[in-house]
Amino acid sequence: MKTISLAVFLSSIMMISAIGCDKTITGSTLDDSMEQYSNNPEQDGALMLVSLDEIASDSLSIEEGNGLLYMREEEKLARDVYTELYVKWNLRPFSNITRSEQMHMNAILSLLTRYSLQDPVDVNGAGVFKNEGLQNLYNALIVEGNKSVVDALNVGATIEEVDIVDLQKHLRETDNQDITFVYDNLLRGSRNHLRAFVKNIKAQGVTYVPQYLTAAEYEQIISTPMERGR
Questions:
Q1: Residue 41 in contact with residue 100, Cβ under 8 Å?
Q2: Helix ranges, the chain (H)
Q3: What pTM did the predictor assign?
Q4: 25 domain residue, yes or no
Q5: Rg of the Cα trace of the chain?
Q6: Each residue of 94-103: pLDDT tens digit?
Q7: Structural domain span for residue 192
Q8: Residue 146, in any domain of the structure
């Protein structure tokens, strides 16, 4: 998300919103038609932290540290946006994926603690961010996601796309096995979230067009089944 401007991010969501679907969509009809996101994020998170304890730490570069700090708040952004959209639309998938985003936050926090980095989240409540860019993005996404159920789902899918792109970027910047292990697990979760959002957007007669993944990367994710936790 560091390299993606707020204007570009929001314009991509508005473009997606304009594609497909003439019918009126309500939260209740969408919830009835949704296949629920069924992975157990708490169990996956607990197993990941147990496995992480078995991997030795390494020296930490400034680039690696900055990546961890940023991803801690980016995962918080996803959690906080989905929490608000669940309150607005009362759709269980937003609640379920929120639980997974909390697990992602916990995993990053374990690395911050391991490397004695100050947590940028600290005591900040929902919707409050140390990073100004993420703060502005959160505010804009809440406005967009409150417009309609389809807009909310588009916000979710776009967040997951950007999360995948950022995790891939930070993976290229690290050779620490513990950081790589966590990022790989978070990537798997984000791919599952993207699959869930896109499937349910499609069920409403709307075509989701990827904005940040290449067409080949997007198709490879969407055409393969949900991935199980390690």
A1: yes
A2: 6-17, 27-33, 41-52, 62-89, 92-114, 132-145, 149-172, 177-202, 215-222
A3: 0.86
A4: no
A5: 17
A6: 999 999 999 9
A7: 6-16+41-222
A8: yes
